[in-house]
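Protein Record: Sequence and Backbone Structure Tokens
======================================================

Structure line: whole-number tokens from a learned vocabulary of local backbone shapes, matched to residues.

Purpose: to set a sequence beside its fold so the mapping can be learned.

___
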Amino acid sequence: MFQSIDPATGTPGATFAELTTDEVEARIARAHDAYRQWRLVPLAERAALLERIAERFEADKRRLAEIATREMGKTLASAIAEVGKCAAGFRHYAQNGPAMLEPVTFQTAAGPATTHYLPQGPVLAVMPWNFPYWQVVRFVAPTLLAGNVGLLKHASLTQGCAAAIDEAIIAAGAPAGVFQNLPIRADKVDALIADPRIVAVTLTGSEGAGMKVAESAGRALKKVVLELGGSDPFIVMPSADLDEAAKVAAKARVQNTGQSCICAKRMIVHADVYDAFLDRFCAAMRAVAAGDPMDPATDMGPLSSIEQRDTVLDQIEQLKAAGGRLLLGGEALPGRGAFMSAGVVVDVPVDHPVAQEEVFGPIAMVFRADDIDAAIALANDVPFGLGSSVWTNDADEQARFVRDIEAGMTAVNRMLASSPEAPFGGVKRSGHGRELGPYGLHEFMNLKTVFG
């Protein structure tokens, strides 16, 4: 049995029954059978289904958002925005995806060769709690358009969101079996990956979860896409607009209460503007209002659980013990919920274990860099390579950062965010493969080349 807990109050919510082994088997069999028919459905009809799903998300936006807020604590305003983004994601693939699946012809020495994009079968998604709708839509929209079918193993914390997605897709008229929610525990995933009827797996989550899934997929010789953790640098150079950079840095650090893989986690600031930026940044972080996530005036809700908050508080204590100075915040707030204040830590030893980890909460580490070479070295001196944000109005510096920062994504003078139109993913221990854009659509397809 899964039990939802409201992290703002500690109050138990809805319960959800776990599937039995026989029930899981029945759903896999249904997915396998559904794929045989869905792959033959004309592309225009598959796109029309995505349009109808988008309409369902829009029509039920408030209710869906409230489920997410009560299950994992994000502010209602951000949850509503997330549901709206999901509708936009479905609509993007409905309207633009068919063109991405047009055959491509190449001229070879032996004559023309044409590559066709063909579906392969059921795809398993193992998804996290931090963006409980958007993470799923990033997988399911291209999966259904491609002619594949989807199986979702969602996080234990957000089973209500998983059930709501299932309901929306069914209400939109999806044929039975083309998308199914699997309320199961993580220890059941290995057997699913080994099942020959499941052709591929995609995971968004921790390094540990990614390694387990990759190992299982490797044994089964199956394609896997991994979107794992990040410790994204936010680099500020002397030519930057410091007022704007500081304001955006605070927003980028505390979005989703700091529980996003692409949150700006390490502020790397050129020595010439370090003090000026730090003053502005601390003022912006100090102004972050933590509180009731249902209140429109709240900037930041609770963390997803007491356990998650305590993990972040322990990381802060480790940094302080190593010589880091906590300039503000970073403390548990009174009450029953999993609240903490936004915090800023400076003088962190760059080789400290926590400085090399992903801190999944609203605490920023600020580092000083003497020049662009030092800034790039600091940015790359972690195991991760997901996103990055660079603030400079110098074109040569922008080119250096784009070329030399080891990350799958770089935002220039703006906050990094995902978008259905552009590929999303990382390098190093942040995973491999891409979601979104045409590349996300093609990841689990058979690119069949036909000669003649």
Summary: Residues 76-100 form the longest helix (25 residues). The CA atoms of residues 236 and 279 lie 14 Å apart. The chain is about 40% helix and 20% strand.
